[in-house]
Amino acid sequence: MRPLFLSMSAFGPFATTQTIDFTALGNNPLFLINGPTGAGKTTLLDGICFALYGKTTGNEREGSQMRCDMADDGVLTEVVFSFQLGAARYRIRRVPEQERSKKSGEGSTQQKSEAQLYRIDADGSEQLLVATKVSEATNAIETLTGLDVEQFRQVMVLPQGKFRELLMADSKAREQIFSQLFQTHIYRRIEDKLKDQASQIRALVKEQRARRDGILQNCALQNDEELNAQLAALTPELTLAQQAKEQAVWQQQQAHKAYDAAQHLQDEFAQLEALQQALSILESQQGSMAAKTEELHLAKQAERLGPMVAHLRAREQEAKDAEDKLSHAVTRFTQTQQTYDEAQLKAKDIPELESSLQAQEGIKIQLTELGPRLSELERLTQRIQQEQAQLLKVKAQCERDKAALTALSQQRKDAELSLVTLQAKGDMRLPLQQTYLQQQQLLAAYEQWQQVVAKVEATKTQLAQAAGVGQQLKLQYQEAQQAYQSLLLVWHQGQAAILAQQLRQGAPCPVCGSFSHPQPAQSVQTLPSDEALQLAQEAQNRAQEQLSSARAEYRGLQTHVTTLQQQADDCAVALGDAAKLSLVDHQQALSQAAAALQQAEQAYQQQLQLQGEIAKLQLQAEEWQLQLESLQLQSSGLQSSVDLLGGQLAQLQQGIPQELGSLAALGTAQTQNDLQLAQFKQQIAQLRSHSQLAAEAFATAKAALEAATASKHAAAEQQTLAQHQLEEQLAGAGFADQASLLKAMRDEAHRQQLASAIEHYEQQRALTQAQSEQLSAKLKDKTVPDMLMLADALQLMQLALDSAEEAWQTRHTRMALLTQTHSQLQLADAKAHSLEEQYAVIGTLADVASGNTGNKISLQRFVLSVLLDDVLLEASRRLHLMSKGRYRLLRKEDRAKGNKASGLELEVEDAYTAKVRPVATLSGGESFMAALSMALGLSDVVQAYAGGIKLDTLFIDEGFGSLDQESLEMAIRTLMDLQSSGRMIGVISHVSEMKEQITTRIDIAKASHGSQIALVLP
User: Fold this and answer.
1) Residue range 869-877: average pLDDT?
2) What is the DSSP letter of 71?
3) Is the distance from CB of 255 to CB of 794 less than 8 angstroms?
4) With helix as H, strand as E and coil as C, how does 553-599 read?
5) For 359-379, how does the pLDDT look when each residue is reduced to its tens digit (9 = 90+)?
6) With helix as H, strand as E and coil as C, how does 791-815 read?
7) CA distances, 287 to each of 283, 293, 751 (Å)
8) CB contact at 8 A, 573 and 102
9) CA-based, 20 to 30 A from 453: which of 434, 917, 924, 1012?
């Protein structure tokens, strides 16, 4: 981490805002923080530490105690710090809890602590990462830097009196620091993972042993020897039972075959009786079958004469059709003859109509010649009317313009009077606008306050609901826990009962050692299965997870309520006395201000509009005066034109008939003439056409009458011939007349139905008779069997079979259970052996990784010890130079006493005495050199391992005063070497030699009104 910019306001001894631009010190600077005691040198480090973590470097004062007493009440205590991590830049602002003046009104209010964290992009824009919560900002800083506040103090800021902490830390504290710096948490997770796996394997081995006992208990067995003995004894018994079962099956099958044969014989006797009854019924139906046979014979004869009947019917229909055609031809001939006579009579009017047609054609010529004269007359009449109308229009316009000029003059006078009143109202527009904006802002702040208050109430409601849900989930968890504990208790009691079954009088109890067993444990409940126990435990875990989630949600809602309540209080403070008013009061005040502003705005707009209207009225008056003069000249010209056109019209009207005095009348006369011409022509054509058509129709009807008469005579002759032919065939077919023939006729479906019925009857009768004779011959020497006796014998064989089956099933079931138990025991033993082999590896690894063997060094502490050795190599190199070759830092490898963690303790090797002693024996100056060497070495190793943490900045607060001149020079030379390798080093010291050798300084001047900061550059 590299500092970029620091700003402190009313913080520590700084009453005003003081800033430090670290980028102005140059790249990788070595600078001195200089100033008198109490000026605020350490406060610079406090400001950086407070901005990042909300705590000071010495942890002796809280952030709320850092406010400067000399600062003005209006200055807020805050620290803003910008820094760089790798290529990313960040800015954090932190405000401690403090008293501040109210924004409105008198008095003070409590300012809550807050913090904002921003990421600065390459273009200078900022993205907000944390809005207000100080805890979120602290967590984000710890995530970004990889250090908490204690680790930051120890490896990046060495404050007064804190040099020896990193040097003197024990193994546990140093493990915590180093694991965060080197990101060795993965080794801790490996330790935990191995430990969990070892625990799981131990539990599984125990579970397999309990399962094995449960398997034996299910078969009521004590041990494997009893299982093998029962298997050996049961094998011959099962063989004998199998043989007895097979013998009983054979006997039962023989009895069943005898019963089935008797049942079949009895069924054949019943079938013979049924066939004999059916044959009697068929014999009784012979009479009806003979009648159907005769009906079918007559139907076939009628079918043979069917074509002749159809031929006669066709001839009869032809004769009837010919009679109808003759009647129609007679009627048509009569009608056409009458029409022909009427047409000849009307044709005599054609000469008279042709004479009238010629007269109308002469009238058409006269009307055509009159058209041009009437067109000219019409044109002159229209022009005179147009000129007269224009003349009247111009005179009316003159009168209107005179009246408008008078009205405009009066309207302008009225507008000038109204303008004075509107100017007075418009001048109030700006003050009313300011009042409206203030009231609008006040209403918005009030509504925001009300929204926050509503959110507080809603969140409180959610909080109450969450509390109710939490109570329900708590009850569910208690029920699930009780259910699991009950099952577990029953399981343990069942294990005790299993153990009690193995007790024998006179033998010692494996638990208490007693030889008497007055009350052995008994299981009154069914032993739960492992699956039931696992399901109950999973239900308990789910209920616990749901309860934990509900509690976390409840705590989140509590925090949200507190935040919203603080926002509501801040809004109420900002509103001041306005908070006492209601929303309706604020809205009414805003409405009143808006109405007043609207009235003033309307007056101002009316003022502008009225001024424009006055100017427009003046222009209109001038335009209308000019227009009036032009209209008067136009009126005189139009009057002269009207008089001239009147003379031309009177001359043209001479010689034109009065009834045809217009083009419309002429058009009407021409239309009537055209209609009469068309009517005459149409009548002549219709008369000639009608006469010709009537003559043609008369000739056609006469020819049709003659043809119909001849056709009627031919059809009558054919009908008579067909009648004689049918009568000749009737006697030969056995029919007396046509009526008996028609009665005997049947359609094809009926004839097929009769034939099928006769054929089916004959077949059924023959088949039944044959089956009856065959079955009678088969049963000739046999008698009806006794089925009751055979059924009793079959039942006895079945009972014997059931008994043998039951005996075999009992032994077979027991044998299967014992065999399954033997297989389950083999599987359980194999699985237990496999788990024991796994535990031999995993358990050993878990013990080694957890530090339960040897020197009690865990895996993570072993890795850290290797890293610490690297740190001590770098630290000893610098300490060796600063101590002029006397001291080197070593890691203590001896095991600590008791169960105390070991492996990361430090010792110092003294070259003067050739002895190794604890680092606590070093003097103050020696401790400072050792701690400085340790911090610098740690920075080198951390970056070399690239653990995600870049320690490129170090602040040192005092400690150089404990060094002699030569050691001081060595220390300064070491810092300069470090600075040249890319580090930023800030040193706080009163030593004058430091000020002489480090020319880049941050000077802090102490004053009664507060300290001031100034940069001193070479």
Assistant:
1) 86
2) S
3) yes
4) HHHHHHHHHHHHHHHHHHHHHHHHHHHHCCHHHHHHHHHHHHHHHHH
5) 777 777 777 766 777 677 777
6) HHHHHHHHHHHHHHHHHHHHHHHHH
7) 9, 10, 19
8) yes
9) 434
In sequence order, what are the beta bridge partners of 151? none
Q: What is the rounded CA–CA span in Å between residue 398 and residue 390?
A: 12
Amino acid at 777: A
At residue 122, φ and ψ (nearest 5 deg) are -65, -30
Q: How far apart are CA 80 and CA 52, in angstroms?
A: 9
Residue 519 has pLDDT above 60, yes or no: yes
The helix/strand count (H/E) of the chain reads as 21, 17
Neighbour count for residue 594 (Cβ, 10 Å): 15
**What is the percent of the chain where pLDDT is above 90?**
5
Mean pLDDT of 343-372: 73
Are the C-beta atoms of residues 336 and 700 closer than 8 Å to each other?
A: yes
Tell me which long-range contacts 951-954 makes (C-beta under 8 A, separation of at least 24): 951/1, 951/155, 951/156, 952/1, 952/2, 952/982, 952/983, 952/984, 953/1, 953/2, 953/3, 953/156, 953/983, 953/984, 953/985, 953/986, 954/156, 954/157, 954/158, 954/978, 954/983, 954/984, 954/985, 954/986
Mean pLDDT across 695-716: 80
- 881: Cβ contacts below 8 Å, ≥ 6 apart: 970, 973, 974
**Closest-CA residue to 968 (of 925, 906, 916, 1015):** 925
CA quadruple 53, 57, 62, 67: dihedral positive or negative? Answer: negative
List the Cα angle 305/309/315 in 5-degree steps.
145
477 HSE (CA, 13 A, CB side): 17
Angle at 529 between CA 523 and CA 535, to 5 degrees: 125
Indicate the pairing of strand 78-85 with strand 88-95.
antiparallel
The owner of tokens 């004959």 is 762
Q: List residues bridging with 369 in a β-sheet.
A: none
3-state per-residue secondary structure call for 964-996: CHHHHHHHHHHHHHHHHCCCEEEEECCCHHHHH
C-alpha to C-alpha distance for 619 and 613, rounded to whole angstroms: 10
First and final C-alpha spacing in the chain: 25
Under DSSP, is residue 1011 helix (H, G, I), strand (E, B) or coil? coil
Long-range Cβ pairs for the range 738-742 (8 Å, 24+): 738/309, 741/302, 741/305, 741/309, 742/302, 742/309
Is 891:867 a contact under the CB 8 Å cutoff? no
| pLDDT of 518 | 66
CA nearest neighbour of 808 among 130, 192, 243, 38: 243
pLDDT value, residue 161: 47
Query: CB pairs under 8 A, 24+ apart, for 177-180?
Result: 177/150, 177/151, 178/864, 178/867, 178/868, 178/904, 179/860, 179/864, 180/146, 180/147, 180/148, 180/151
Q: Are 1017 and 25 in contact (CB under 8 A)?
A: yes
Strands (E), 903-1018: 906-910, 915-918, 953-957, 984-988, 1001-1005, 1012-1016
pLDDT at 162: 47
Question: What value, to the nearest 5°, has the Cα angle with vertex 264 and ends 260 and 266?
Answer: 115
Strand segments, DSSP code E, in 367-488 are none
Alpha-carbon span 11 to 46, nearest angstrom: 10
Tokens of 648: 């031309």
CA–CA distance, 943 with 936 (Å, rounded to integer) = 11
Tokens at 692, concatenated? 């010709």
- Amino acid 751 reads R
- The identity of residue 250, as a single letter, is W
- Sign of the alpha-carbon dihedral angle for 978, 912, 888, 177: negative
Among 869, 937, 947, 945, smallest CA distance to 903 is for: 869
Q: Check: CB of residue 762 under 8 Å from CB of residue 326.
A: no
What integer best gives the mean pLDDT of the chain?
A: 79
Residues 6+ apart with CB under 8 A from 652: 373, 376, 377, 380
